[in-house]
Amino acid sequence: MSYKNILLEQQESIATITINRPEKLNALNKTTLEELHEAIIDANANTNIRVIILTGSGDKAFVAGADISEFANYDVSQGADLAKRGQILVFDLIQNATTPIIAAVNGFALGGGLELAMACHFRVASDNAKMGLPEVSLGVIPGYGGTQRLAQLAGKGKALEMIMSANMISADDALKCGLVNYVVTQEELLPFCEKLATRISRNSSTAIAAAITAVNANFEDGINGFDEEVKQFGNCFGTPDFIEGTTAFLEKRKPEFE
Ligand code: COA
To answer: Which residue in 108, 100, 111, 1 sits closest to 54, CA to CA?
Structure first.
């Protein structure tokens, strides 16, 4: 499938999805969100892809937010629909993908851009990156999960400060508050993420999928994360990867997961 606003690349078992509207700082318009939805569904279902890296085109922005020009005239119900559709189509899809998704934050990650990075399983930033949720400066609030995920990642006080002030924080400050796992130079960003992805890709993909489901359960209403962990742990015992992983250990060799 060919896309207008995103680029797809695959090297061995690692897929890179690049949001490609650099002239608009990769702002998320309707087409881009729809294409991201398709690309993530395809990559997540592709058994040859073990890790996905999500990044932005150019050296200035990861994503500078939802496309403001598209929603400036919306009314109350269109606004609610925009948030709901986006959350279901892309943001929840990424969070619940069973293939690991790493955000390579290569510049501005603002509003919907930071929300996109936060929906990923974890984040690596380049040292020029700037992150923030500036929605209140536009008279609106984050609508793609930002009020929830920022509080989960950085704590309630930091989330409220960032949301209320609309301030951008540096990559180093994002590292300090747990929003990103690493900060590297811009040149190092993709190679660093690819190295991490390669490391992850050597492990059991069924066990990784189970781990994602169990960790996410902690943040879902009405689900007991410990119970989900027990269920996922038990399920692992019925997988070929479990047989291969334990057998390889006992035979003192490296496992070869299918
Ligand atoms: N939606 C739509 N267009 C956007 C955008 C967004 N969120 N962010 C940037 N753009 C567009 C600009 O309108 C401009 O387009 P133009 O050249 O056709 O006028 C282009 O991207 C370049 O942006 P510009 O503002 O000229 O770059 P800058 O370096 O001066 O400033 C930012 C960079 C990120 C500080 C600034 O673009 C900005 O504040 N963007 C909006 C951030 C935001 O509020 N996001 C949350 C949205 S909910």
So the answer is: 100
64 CA → ligand 1 middle, Å: 6
Q: Could you read off the pLDDT of 79-97 as tens digits, one per residue?
A: 999 999 999 999 999 999 9
Q: What's the chain's length in residues?
A: 258
- Cα–Cα dist 53/51, whole Å: 7
- The yes-or-no verdict on residue 37 having pLDDT over 80 is yes
Distance 6 CA to ligand 1 centre (A): 18
Quick one: average pLDDT of 238-245?
Answer: 98
Rounded distance, CA 228 to CA 71, Å? Answer: 39
Q: Quick one: which of 193, 186, 185, 183 has its CA closest to 60? A: 186
Per the CB < 8 A criterion, the answer to whether 132 and 162 are in contact is yes
Ligand 1 pocket check for 111: Cβ under 6 Å: yes
- The pTM of this model reads 0.97
CATH fold for domain 6-201: 2-enoyl-CoA Hydratase; Chain A, domain 1 (3.90.226)
